[in-house]
Each structure stands twice: as structure tokens, then as C-alpha cells.
Amino acid sequence: xxxxKDMQLSERETDDLCRECGLGGDIFPCKMCPRSxxxxxxxxxxxxxxxxxCDNCTILVQKEKALAANKNAKAAGRQAGVDSIEQxxxxxxxxxxxxxxxxxxxxxxxxxxNNSVFDERTVILCDQCEKEYHVGCLRSEWQVDLKExxxxxxxxxxxxxxxxxxxxxxxxxxxxxxxxxxxxxxxxKHESKGLIMDTDTEIRWQLVAGRSATADGNSLxxxxxxxxxxxxxxxxxxxxxxxxxxxxxxxxRPKEGMPGQDYSGMYCAVLTVGSxxxxxxxxxxxxxxxxxxxxxxxxxxxxxLGYFQVLFxxxxxxxxxxxxxxxxxxxxxxxxxxxxxxFGFSKxxxxxxxAY
Length: 356
Description:
With 356 residues, the chain is α+β, with helices and mostly antiparallel strands. Helix content is 32%, strand content 13%.
């Protein structure tokens, strides 16, 4: 970041694709970093004539200003005159081994596969729960006799098929009005802070999937990305340098023949006030056993007003209707108390988490 403050990036050094939607065209770069954007993807009417910083760099600048009196910043070597390498070496680093028992065929538990030709060891993945199966194991264990890899979607059981149908129906219905009890939560939060809730502006929630999103759906997803970036630093993919947050929000899969994570199973739930996305949550429904909430965020200036609490209730009711047994999320240590006391979550043992 210190280097980038003194750099003037040329057009050659900036991204040639929009970081929000992944497409090219009439894009412009952030003043501090190489990221480029379509004006519409970041809520601008056109290319800004003055210096413009992306949400991530704006937040970084704000964080840097707050470091001067921050003890943790000194410990991390992020203050002037503090040797960062010395500070790092003073601290213990915990390396967590990855369990070798994870993954593999859901029936035989073995990890071998053969995808060069179609045979007994060819692996197929369920398009809802994402479990892996050997074609031969499906034939011997479940009497599912596949002659070739099916075109389109494939589901391992009726439950996964029914869940996908229900989710697709929810998406097709578009924005849903909030119940009076949900609106009352937001109203009381406003009153507790001495604010008056705007009753003329409609508040709705909506489930969107990038793989099947309409133009309006893609617009909502593009609006959700900066909301999440306000609370989370970019999650960088090591071999490409790409920020994975837009990839997850838009539910993208790797291009044909290219390595990378497949996020096509991701859903994004958004809460809108009028036409503005104020709260967003990423959701994966891994069949009837477990659903996961990897990232949630609310606009910085609207936090504490009950918006995410209401969005969470809508998601929870959806999962109850789908008969999903368990709802999981990764929580930072400082946020554990909020999730456990306010939302009713509890810690689970490591072996149980690995099983899920």
C-alpha cells in the first residue's frame, strides 16, 4: 500500500476487466490500485473526472489513518518506525494441518478418479449438495446405472432435486415483502437510536443465483459486492491474483479448461431499501444435511438498524421450509459472542465440522 501511494498506474498496468462483473468495455481504474470498473457497476453515472478510489482502497486509507494510536497495529509492524519483520518473528505462528480424510467418493470414500474416459472410476458431482460419486459406486450401491455423463444438471437424490426446484421457484418469484413482525424489528431499532424509519420506501428481500440471474438480478449482485467489501478485505486467489468475493457473489465457475474454484452453487440473499442493497449474505445449501453462510455484511452507515437481523430471519425461514437439518457459518473470534447470543448458534467440535 505504501508503494502504491506514490505510483501512477498506466493503462497498461491496470485490469482490462471490471472487478465487479468480470466483463470488459468502457472501464476506468482506481487511483490507488490496478482494479478497474464499469461506472454502472460502482453506482456512478459515468467515468469520474476527479480522482476516484475503489471501496477497498477507501477502507484501507481509513484504516491507515486509524493505526497511529492502535496497539495491535504496532504489534503487526504497521506503524512508522516499527520493524514489521521483527514484530512478526516475536509472535508464535500456528500452522493448522488439513485433514487428509476430507473429500473423495461419498460412497466408498476413496479419492481416485478417471475422467479421461467414462468408466467405473469416473467421478460425477451432485449439482446441489456437491458430493462426489464414482459411477461404479452408484451402480453397485444404489443401482443407478449411468451410461454416460448426463447433460445439464444431475442430482444424487430426490431431496437434492426438490431443494433445487424450491430454490429456483424462490428466485423466479423475485423480491419478497417483509412481514409486519420483521418491519417492527427495523422500526424499533430506529427508535432506539432516535431515528425515524422511512415508511414510504419499500423494504424487501430477494434470493439471487448468479448462474441464472436476469439483468435485474445481476444488477443486485453487482450492488452486493461493494457492500461486502466494506466489511471484508479482498480474498485473493494465489495463482491468478483475482479477488474471489465478486466470483462468489456472482456464482461463477472457472472457464473451460482453467483451474479455480467453482462457485456456481452460491446464492446471494439481499435486503433492499427502495432500489438500494443495504445487507447481503452468501448462502450454500449442501442438500438436506447442511447449509452454510460464508459471508454476510451490511452497509457501514446502516449497521445496527436491524437490517441483517431481518435478512437472517428470512434466510432461516427459507431453510426451515427446505427441511435443511443444520445451518453453519465460519465466525471470527471477536464475532462469536454475537452469533451465539443473538442468533442462537453454538460451537461444534472439529470432527463434526469436517464431517459436514
